[in-house]
Design a protein that fits this description.
The chain is built from eleven helices and seven strands. It is α+β, with helices and mostly antiparallel strands.
Length: 285
């Protein structure tokens, strides 16, 4: 399809999560240095990367049985499916940790004067456990950090994958579960493997999702409720925009149209949503 015929909506706050909302308004309403912008955007991008990797892993998982069939048939196997599954799952683990690491950096950006927010994700969670985080940080965030029982096992595994060796996955015939073997796992469970690796990583993903929801629900309260430029989308090869405040951003009708200044001119193509968009009805004349 030609780009001149495409309609791509970008402004859809009804579909945003709490992290998406913060990114959409905080980045546009603050003058940030590049590394700060990258850290804030990294919270969502690393988490979404992990989700995509887990989708790939779930597609590979049923094929691991082919490695055993190959072994039984030929007397040997390269274990290609198991290796692929392991590589994807370990990448998902490191991406999840990176999302949490970027969330820690975001706290440092939003609360630059708060005590107890070190330049270390591990020390941040230790400070929370020991009640060493400044009261400038909302109690819900401090509680979420303190009660994050999932963090230590994730950190141990991530550190091992980043700084030492990788692990391996094998299909257990009796349970049908895929076990993950790594020397680092002994520090987590006292044994050298995780029985159901997919279940473990999915549960960590869900815990992190809840954790980020709590943190960014509070951070969204810090947003300045002033109008911010927002891209509506790409319609017919052109960029359309509006101005909207965080507290009024509910759906596609929110805010006031800014692009009408040029698309209302006779020589220009109009917006395809003129007849139904509340933002256009709220335009300044």
């Amino acid at each position: 399809m030609s780009i001149d015929n495409q309609i791509v909506i970008r402004f859809s706050p009804e579909h945003w999560g709490k992290v998406d909302r913060f990114i959409s308004f905080y980045l546009l309403s603050n003058s940030l240095i590049p590394r700060h912008r990258q850290a804030i955007e990294g919270v969502a991008n690393h988490f979404h990367k992990a989700r995509r990797l887990l989708d790939v892993a779930e597609a590979i998982a049923p094929k691991i049985a082919e490695d055993r069939a190959e072994l039984e048939k030929n007397g040997h196997t390269g274990g290609r499916r198991s290796l692929e599954f392991t590589a994807v799952m370990e990448s998902a683990v490191t991406a999840l940790y990176s999302s949490v690491d970027c969330a820690r950096k975001t706290l440092n950006i939003v609360y630059p004067k708060a005590q107890g927010l070190p330049e270390s994700t591990r020390k941040l969670f230790q400070n929370a456990e020991n009640d060493k985080i400044d009261n400038l940080i909302p109690v819900s965030i401090r509680s979420a950090l303190k009660n994050a029982k999932w963090f230590m096992p994730l950190r141990v595994l991530r550190d091992a994958l980043t700084h030492t060796n990788t692990g391996s996955c094998h299909l257990d015939e009796d349970s049908g579960e895929i076990r993950y073997f790594s020397d680092a796992v002994k520090a987590i469970s006292g044994k050298g493997h995780i029985d159901n690796f997919m279940h473990y990583v999915l549960s960590v993903r869900d815990e992190i999702n809840r954790f980020l929801g709590i943190v960014f629900a509070e951070l969204n309260k810090c947003l300045d409720d002033s109008e911010v430029w927002q891209m509506c989308g790409f319609f017919y090869g052109r960029v359309y925009h509006r101005f909207v405040r965080p507290n009024e951003a509910v759906d596609f009708n929110s805010g006031r149209c800014g692009a009408h200044e040029w698309f209302d001119l006779e020589e220009n193509p109009t917006c395809p949503f003129v007849a139904s968009c509340g933002a256009y009805q709220n335009k300044e004349t």
